């Protein structure tokens, strides 16, 4: 279950596994945002208030991820079509949850449209094989790598025109 990727199975299948994957990423992001809020902004006093601040961020973020996954896959199963509109509906539901989180309809409607459009772009990228966020490549060198000789050609003693003193 932990090694499962979202696109391992076609849309509309293994919805529980897909919900787990998206919720996992949302929970990690929520933990980061909540920790930043607690340490840098809100400074809650006591365990209960700290847990409340974590829940304030984790709940809606996991809910948005779950709403996207369930809506997009349910739309696939109901409509029988695998197109960008399923992802638009999923994004719109995530935006609706975002608006409910902020308790503001003027925030929720634009977020529903924006997240729906982002979902459509993601679905188009998946269908066409585009890479929206490339994988990070790690550096093979360290601070000690300067001690290694990375030149293409070694020095030829006969061609050196200088004298050592």
UniProtKB/TrEMBL annotation:
Q: Say which species the protein is native to.
A: Euphydryas editha (Edith's checkerspot)
Q: Where in the cell is it found?
A: Mitochondrion inner membrane
One Pfam family this sequence matches: Tim17
**Transmembrane regions listed in the UniProt entry:** 20-39, 51-72
Question: Per its UniProt record, what PANTHER family does this chain match?
Answer: NADH DEHYDROGENASE [UBIQUINONE] 1 ALPHA SUBCOMPLEX SUBUNIT 11, NADH-UBIQUINONE OXIDOREDUCTASE SUBUNIT
Tell me its family.
Belongs to the complex I NDUFA11 subunit family.
Mind telling me what this protein is named?
A: NADH dehydrogenase [ubiquinone] 1 alpha subcomplex subunit 11
What superkingdom does the record give?
Eukaryota
Instruction: Tell me which Gene Ontology terms the entry assigns under biological process.
Output: mitochondrial electron transport, NADH to ubiquinone
The major lineage groups are: Eukaryota, Metazoa, Ecdysozoa, Arthropoda, Hexapoda
